[in-house]
Amino acid sequence: MPAEKPPQPPVVQPPNEDGQGAVVAERKTARVKPPALYQVVMLNDDYTPMEFVVMVLQELFQRDEATATQIMLKIHHEGRGVCGVYTKDVAATKVEMVLTAARRAGHPLQCIMEAA
Ligand code: TYC
Question: What are phi and psi for residue 113, nearest 5 degrees?
Answer without folding.
Answer: -120, 150
